[in-house]
């Protein structure tokens, strides 16, 4: 299998170019448990951008070398004593949680409490926690969609003719660990996690799960969808059509998102425009106390 990457860049004269990198075939092999895995080799590996997910990977490399680090230097409030994780792990989980919360609309991830997030990390050692699975599914959908937009494939050119990658549509609460393994073993920046994803998420300690989630969030930050959020400095533009009937007219704008509604389309209908902040039904439904 081959990984083909097409990317656009601009030089100092603002002239757009298209670059294409081609890697050697991915070799499939099977271990004693007959579980498929893959390795990704590239003769020009140094040409690949090394800044992607560098922070989490550097942390993963150096984590085992941190000798003599005292967890007492992380002074967390007393209210964090019920998190069931160490203070150091709580800070890294807070980093992941802030990323998921800030880009929840792009990831299509419903809001949740930080305490529930910490609990899902612990429970996923023995059971398939729904929240933990949904977080990985949303991240993988974003990354797979970005690979598809960048014309990245995981097969030879002769094998992909007339073939459609169904990973995006088939990923669910049962298949996501296998799709995660295929993605990690094929991604050049995530190869250090190959030994982790074999039995992921079961029988994996909390710290290894945190390291992998940090790396996935770092890779997600390099996607065009996320970068567009940073580069977009324009004010929020509301929809021109009602979210309920899809018609135009005098619309009431939500103060939190881009949604607009007719007064008569709301349940219950409104007779006048509110004089205070107004949130659409979707924002109210996704509003979680403490988030």
Description:
It holds the Pfam family DDT. Residues 239-286 form the PHD-type domain. This protein has helices spanning 54-63, 87-102, 104-107, 114-123, 130-149, 167-170, 176-186, 206-221, 224-231, 281-285; strands spanning 4-10, 16-22, 27-30, 36-39, 252-253, 260-261. It is α+β, with helices and mostly antiparallel strands. It folds into two domains: 51-230, no CATH class; 237-291, Zinc/RING finger domain, C3HC4 (zinc finger) (Herpes Virus-1, 2-Layer Sandwich). It has a two-stranded antiparallel sheet. It has a two-stranded antiparallel ribbon with strand order 3-4. Mean pLDDT is 74; it is low at 1-53 and 64-72.
Q: Characteristics of this structure?
A:
single chain; about 290 residues; alpha+beta; Herpes Virus-1; 2 domains; two-stranded antiparallel ribbon; 10 helices; 6 strands; globular; disordered N terminus; metal-binding; zinc ion binding
Helix percentage range: 25-40%
Which assembly state applies to the chains in this document? single chain
**Main β-sheet: number of strands, strand sense, barrel status?**
2 strands, antiparallel
Order of helices and strands: EEEEHHHHHHHHHEEH
Please state roughly what percent of the residues sit in beta strands, choosing from under 5%, 5-15%, 15-25%, 25-35%, 35-45% or over 45%: 5-15%
Keywords: Metal-binding, Nucleus, Zinc, Zinc-finger
Pfam families: DDT, PHD, WHIM1
GO molecular function: RNA polymerase II cis-regulatory region sequence-specific DNA binding; zinc ion binding
Region (Disordered): 27-47
């Amino acid at each position: 299998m081959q990984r083909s990457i097409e990317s656009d860049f601009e030089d100092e004269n603002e002239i757009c170019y298209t670059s294409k990198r081609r890697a050697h075939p991915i070799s499939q092999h099977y271990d004693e448990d007959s579980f498929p895995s893959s390795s990704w080799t590239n003769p020009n590996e140094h040409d690949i951008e090394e800044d992607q997910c560098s922070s989490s990977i550097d942390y993963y490399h150096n984590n085992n070398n941190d000798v003599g680090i005292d967890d007492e230097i992380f002074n967390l409030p007393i209210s964090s004593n019920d998190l069931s994780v160490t203070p150091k792990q709580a800070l890294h989980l807070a980093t992941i949680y802030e990323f998921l919360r800030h880009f929840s609309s792009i990831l299509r991830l419903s809001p949740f409490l930080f305490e529930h997030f910490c609990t899902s990390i612990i429970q996923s050692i023995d059971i398939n926690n729904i929240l933990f699975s949904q977080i990985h599914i949303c991240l993988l959908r974003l990354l797979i969609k970005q690979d598809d937009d960048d014309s990245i494939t995981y097969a030879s050119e002769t094998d992909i003719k007339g073939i459609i990658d169904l990973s995006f549509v088939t990923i669910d609460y049962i298949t996501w660990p296998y799709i995660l393994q295929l993605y990690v073993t094929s991604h050049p920046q995530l190869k250090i996690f190959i030994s982790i994803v074999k039995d992921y998420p079961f029988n994996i300690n909390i710290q290894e799960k945190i390291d992998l989630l940090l790396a996935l969030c770092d890779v997600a930050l390099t996607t065009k969808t996320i970068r567009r959020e940073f580069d977009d400095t324009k004010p929020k533009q509301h929809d021109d059509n009602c979210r309920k009937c899809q018609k135009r007219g005098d619309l009431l704008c939500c103060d939190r998102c881009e949604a607009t509604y007719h007064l008569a389309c709301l349940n219950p209908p409104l007779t006048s425009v509110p004089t205070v902040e107004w949130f659409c039904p979707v924002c109210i439904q996704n509003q979680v106390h403490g988030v």
